Amino acid sequence: MQPGSIPSNISVGSTIGAGQTIGRVGTTGNSTGNHLHFGICYGKFYLGVGNPLAESYIYGNNITPQPVANPSVKAVWADKYDTNMNAKSCVYNPGRQRITTIGIQVRDGNNIIGRKEEMMYSGGQYSTKENFWFDFNSELGLRLRPGHVYGWQMYADVGGRRYYTDWINDRTTGTEKPNKPVFSAAKTHYAVGDAVTVSWGADSCATGGYSLTLKQTKGGTYSQTLTTNSANATSLAFTLPSEGEYEITGFARGNENSDIATLNKTIVAHNPCKVRFVEYDKEGNENLLCEQTVKYGYAATAPMGVSRKGHTFVGWKGEYSNVTSDRTIVAQFKRNTYKVTFYDKDDNIIDTQSVLFEDDATAPKPPEPESGYVFAGWDNEDYKNVQGNVKVKACYVWKNDDLPVVVEINNCEYKEDGYVVNYNIKNNPNNRTKGRAIFSLRTSTGKLINSTESDAFSLAKAEYSKNLEMYIPYDGIATNVSLYIVDRFSSGIPYSQTVSYEIEREWSGWSVEEPGKDVEVEDRTEYRYRNLLTTTTRTSVNEGWDLAEKILDAAWNFKSWSGWSRTPYAVNETSTTKREVEARDVSDNNGYTRNTYYYWKDPYKLAFSYYNEGGMIYYEYSQCTNDSGPKMYVYGSYNGHTTYRLNNNNYGYGVNFNSELWFLKSSTNIPATTHKEYRFRDGEKGYTYKWTKWDAWSDWMVEAIKATSSKDVETRKTYRYRAKMSDLEDNSGKEYTVKGTVDKALAGKEALIQVYKGDEPSDFNNEYVGKVTINDDGTFSHKFVCRQEISEKTGDYKVMMAIEGGDKPFYLETIEAPKPQYKVVFKDMDGNIIDTQTVKKGNSATAPKAPDVKNYSFVGWDFGVTNVNDNMEITAQYVKNKYSVAFVDWETKEVYTDVFDYGSPVTYPEIKDLEGYDFVNWTTPDGKEINTITENTILIANYKIKTYKVNFYDNNGSLLSSQNVKYSKDAVEPEVVKIDGMVFDGWNNYDFINVNSDVDVYPIYKYTETTENPTCDTKSGVFTESKKIHLYASEDAKIYYTTDGSIPTQASKVYDGELLISQNTYLQFIAAEPNKNTSEVQAVSFLVASGEDDDGALVVKKEKYKLDRGSEAKITYFLSHENPDIGVNFYSLDENIATVDEDGTVHANNVGTTQIFVSTKDNKYADYCEIEVSTTDIDVQTIVLNKTAVAGIADETIQMEATVYPENATEKDVDWYTDDRSIATVNEKGELKILKKGTTKLRAYSKSGSCIAECDVKGVSEFDENKLQISSPYLFLNEKEQDRLYTYYDDADVSCKWESMNEDVVTVDDTGLVTAKKEGYSIIVATAEDDTQVTCMAIVSKEKTAEPETPSVETPDSSATPKPTSTPNSTEVPKPTATPNSTEAPKPTATPNVPAQTKEPETPRQTQAPNTSTDKPADSNNTNTTTGVNNNSTGSINTSNGSYGNADNTITVPMIKTCKITHKGKGKVKVIWKKVSGSSGYQVQYSLNKKMRAAKLKNCKAASLTIKKLKKKKTYYVRVRAYKMVNGRKVYGKWSGVKKVKIKK
Fold first, then answer.
1. Which of 384, 951, 956, 1024 has the fewest CB atoms within 10 Å distance of its CB?
2. 819 — alpha (psi -120 to 50), left (phi > 0) or beta?
3. Please, which pLDDT band fits residue 1364 given cuts at 50, 70 and 90?
């Protein structure tokens, strides 16, 4: 039916009458003429041709219908509705084969959306023509869209073969709803101001176009809707106005709009980024080149003309072509290379170097200087830190101004009766020089034979005289001649270095025969060699050569390939021949397909068909795919059959007639065929012959030659000889040595030594002339033999030395001629001979040791022992002994010393009043009273302890308890009276502890109720201007506050109204009601910026920082201050929850919420953010150790174990620590190792620090301390005297470290040798390897020399002062075999504690001397004391009063008044105090006891200290004191007041 020909009143379901026009019929182009198929449907099957009920054909143009020749399926029509179709087709079966299956498939566009297949009903299976159809809704389950085009194709299986209709496209009725569009965008991230283009596929149903909406979802509320009215539109673009995230939605518009579609990505708009282009100098300082604001995702523009001195710009480090964040781009430079040229003094190039900018060139070795000169350096130092091309020239100066002349000996020959020396002399370039040349002839042993001097000369500046001659008369044999210049012979000041020349003696020629033993012989090794020659040939014969190796060729030598042949060849190979064969497949044909085509043609018409429809002519055509000429090509389809045409390049016209259509009848594949072809090539290998032979030997030579595989070497030894000089020379005479020491500054200088007779040296009275060089330490030593042996006839020889640069010589010593000898006899005071000596005239005798006489002291001899000129008797002289007495008062810590004659009565010092004691008497250490002095003695003051009355009263003043308490002891606290509404809170004083006077004590009570905590109406925070705040408390309460950091009390300011906060303030306040305790201290912090921040000069990222406990995060803030370098300060409102570092790093300490304040350093702007700390950990609540106390000796290891509760704690491991690592250490496995004697604490901490367990650790001594002894607990010495101490254990020596506590008085060396320095006393401490100690008190008296009772000492001759030959050894005190056990004293740390432990007898008692074996005092409050002794009065021993030294030289350390304590997180507090000027450091003491018992000490240098690992929910007491270092000892100030702090978490 032609479109548009059906009347409007006819539609599906209409009833029509006979003769009514229903439309016009046309042709499709594939029909045989204008015609219409008309039939009747029964059910779903079409009753077609051959069915008497419905068969009816209506033909146009009088064309007779033609039946089909082959089976086929043809589409008929489709009934179309809004959401459904009924598709109808007809199956043609002219051969009445069985029709088994019918089916349909439906597609939307290119997508198959439905299929249905079923059996043909039985009545139609063998019909020649059968109609069938399908309902899309009911049978395919499809609900179609109104107004939409769908494709359908039906099929049937006929005779086992399937036949299809063409695809038919039909549109449903009604109006189509557009599909939901699918949006896409090129990317996710854009710059603010950029356009986002959203694309989709066009939908023809979108008759109204499209509508899209852009909506800001983060960072703002912007929204925009864009529309287009075109159904063919495929994109719209939005401009992004501001930073944030955006969502894009939209729909297609039609008669009915599509569903809402959403872009599958969130569009993010970014603000511009800052790009900084910088460079860094060599110190790392940044130099900003430019700063740009660049749109997100765009490229920055690199600055031009970037340069740096000495560098070449090579590019930028950092990405700036696609900027997506703030970034810094760094200029990259390459250092330039410069040329550095070094020249010698004559401008000749020495070296040329290429050096990088600012690097140093390596100065080359300068050319050797001329004689007398030395290289002085380069004319500039531009070769260091090179800045460009550089030229450097070598400079030379005279080597030694003290030696202004250089001499050279060219030759020395013997002529007739003497020697002629040929020499050169060169003067320095700076000054004229006057002098003489000294020439000396010597033997081979160095003995001087003769010497002479030249005439005086004067040399001009830089004068250089050559080939001068000097005659030295001597007709004997000389081996050596030396030459040097002096100012004049008599003084001998050297003006040149000494040069020597070995006088040659003629040698014989070299021979292989070894000479005899009576001559001087030299030998040498001589070498000759021959080389191994090599050659190669390809033949096996080479006359005169030895065959070394026969080598088969590694590679084959192949001939060319033969031609290809169908004859196969065999592969074969021997060691020297080889045939290779190749094969190939050659195609006979490539294979092809033979296709046979046909058609039936009506001879009277242009009609054609794939079957004979009657009266048609059959045509057939075969074609191979490899044929040349026209090819069949697919043209189209006819009734489901593919049609072909023959392409003969004639515009589609066939060879038989125009527009014929062919159908494929059959296809036959013809396979390809091939055959094999072969070719070969032959190869061969030959041999290379390697030959060798030796060439002729070389001449003999002395250069060493090493033999190799290609070099043969022979050696021989040859000799030459000459007469021995020792047989010819005069080497008689005694050898002398002169030595001494001069100033070290003269090290390296030359000196001239002259030995002469008479008053001064000359060439005729010189016995020796020679040079010596001063050693680095100023010493010198020289051996020589005089020309003439010394005798009484020659007299004494004098030795003189002159040093270069000096102005005159100096005398060294005299070599004495032989002298007469005398007898010297020494006797004791009773005339007994002690010693007899023989002494040369004028020399000194050596005084022997005088015998010891009881109660007497030796004071000297009655005659001198020097300048002995006759036989002598010398007698020893004595006086009565004097003894030292030390009066020691251990309670007052004073010592007084005095000296008494033997047998003198004792004179006692005055006794001072002593708190807590009454003086009794003076006794020796063993308790004896004495009246006269017969030996060095210690007398100790004895005291009786006092008793005091301590009364305890109740709140009404009634006596609760009265006690008699000894001095320094504690009274017992009685039970107190209970009072309603109040609880006991301690005593008004604690003087009943360590009692030192009568004491009255009263109780202190506190109320049972406590005032409620006050509040503030303003939370801690940041203000930009002054703010008024208000405090609130209960009705009857008063509020007290402070702002200076101190804790408020009822003595603080009273709150009487609002407070104005105008500056940074830390406000603390309490409330107090009558009959109630004061409230807890409340605190708020306010940070006040000086101005409003309207411009966002300081903005802190406001989102809450959520941190896990123990983690870190960095505060993000933006600073746009007018001063970009102003910087900011960070402050945490609650450091227990979180602390913040100077760089903004936040440390999460404990669970909770707090705020971090950020302010500019000028306090002009401020902002803050919140910190929330959480944790999922289960903390350890309890730690149980396997031991609570352990003890061990050095190097013992003890295994410690820790069990944590609850058992499901997150972190079960613990951290192990010891307080004193010098006593014991512990590793991570809990293995505790004892190192030395002492006590410490072992602690196990949970990983969170919330829990701790402790164990007492004690290191004990390997030695029994009661048996470690010292040879003497007391030592009495006079000034400059020495004595030795020993330590022993069970009579066995013990090695100790020795130390004197007052080295101004005595010193002690590593062997225990004690040396007295000056009057006073000191404690000597000996420390064993396990730190066990014993002590000795050394008391020194002034040295007093007594006159003999009958002095008759001869005054020695002062004209002669010979050096003594030896010095008497000091007398050592022998080690005693047994010594009483000494008592114990505290171990000294910096200086010894002189006061000791005190016994408490009921009767008068003697105070105890220092213990000789001690531990460190257990009470940490005991301050080390320092002893200072006056030279002639009582010394004072100061205790912890902050001073050191004598009464006239006191050093005072100021007291720290108070300290401030702040929480620093979990288990940590920070202690801060005011710095003490001049202090060396500080001690911080903290304890859980307010009286500071069991306190711990920390040392530090700064005026603050953070104390860690404190127990939670415990109150600690803290105090501080300063100290100074004085002479290596610490002097402490007084403790500050005690501050307390409660550890919350």
1. 956
2. beta
3. very low
How much is the average pLDDT of 552-568? Answer: 90
Q: What is the pLDDT of residue 2?
A: 52
- Check pLDDT > 90 for residue 1402: no
Q: Mind listing the pLDDT tens digit for each residue in 976-1022? A: 888 888 888 888 888 888 888 999 999 988 888 899 999 999 888 77
Beta bridge partners of 114: 106
Q: Are strands 1166-1174 and 1105-1108 parallel, antiparallel or unpaired?
A: parallel
Which pLDDT band, with edges at 50, 70 and 90, does 15 fall under? low
Tell me the CA end-to-end span of the chain in Å, nearest whole number: 96
Q: Which residue has the higher pLDDT, 852 or 640?
A: 852
Distance between CA atoms of residues 797 and 789, nearest Å: 10
CA 390 – CA 1283 distance, rounded (Å)? 71
Tell me if residue 123 falls in helix, strand or coil: helix
pLDDT tens sequence across 39-86: 444 343 333 333 333 333 333 333 334 445 789 999 988 999 989 999
Q: Would you call 768 exposed, middle or buried from its count of C-beta atoms within 10 A (0-12, 13-18, 19+)?
A: buried
Backbone angles phi, psi at 746, to 5 degrees: -90, 5
Place of tokens 């020439």: 439
Task: Take residue 908 and report the two structure tokens written for it.
Answer: 């006692």
Q: How confident is the model at residue 1370 (pLDDT cuts 50, 70, 90)?
A: very low
CA distance 1536 to 1453: 12
Q: Which residues contact 1358 (CB under 8 A, 6 or more apart)?
A: none
CA distance 1470 to 1516: 12
At 1459 the pLDDT is 85
Query: Per mean pLDDT, which of 13-17, 598-602, 888-892, 948-952 is the most reliable?
Result: 948-952
Residue with tokens 């356009």: 195
Buried b (16+ CB within 10 A) or exposed e, 636-663: eebbbbebbbbbeeeeeebeeeeebbbb
Q: What are phi and psi of 1199, to 5 degrees?
A: -85, 120
Q: Is the pLDDT of residue 1085 over 70?
A: yes
Rg (CA), the chain: 62
Decide: 724 and 798 in contact? Cβ < 8 Å.
no
Nearest to 391 by CA among 349, 434, 433: 349
Mention every residue, 6+ apart, whose C-beta is less than 8 A from residue 1367: none
Residue 64 is given by DSSP the state: P
Closest by Cα among 154, 168, 142 to 103: 154
Nearest-angstrom CA–CA distance, 914 and 919: 8
b/e string for 434-448 if b means 16 or more Cβ within 10 A? ebbbbbbbbbbbbbb
Token pair belonging to 1415: 């531990």
Q: Distance (Å, rounded) from C-alpha 1354 to C-alpha 861?
A: 9
Residue with tokens 């870190």: 1112
Per the CB < 8 A criterion, the answer to whether 658 and 683 are in contact is no
Q: What is the pLDDT of residue 406?
A: 95
Query: Which pair of tokens denotes residue 1283?
Result: 């004595």
Which is nearest to 847 in space by CA: 856, 857, 834? 834
pLDDT of residue 1480: 87
- Can you give the three-state secondary structure of 197-263, one letter per residue? EEECCCCCCCCCEEEEEEEEEECCCCEEEEEECCCCCCEEEEECCCCEEEEEEEEEECCCCCCCEEC
Query: Closest by alpha carbon to 327, among 251, 276, 379, 292?
Result: 276
- Show the tokens assigned to 29: 């182009």
- pLDDT, tens digit, 9 for 90 and up, residues 1265-1294: 456 788 887 787 888 888 888 887 766 778
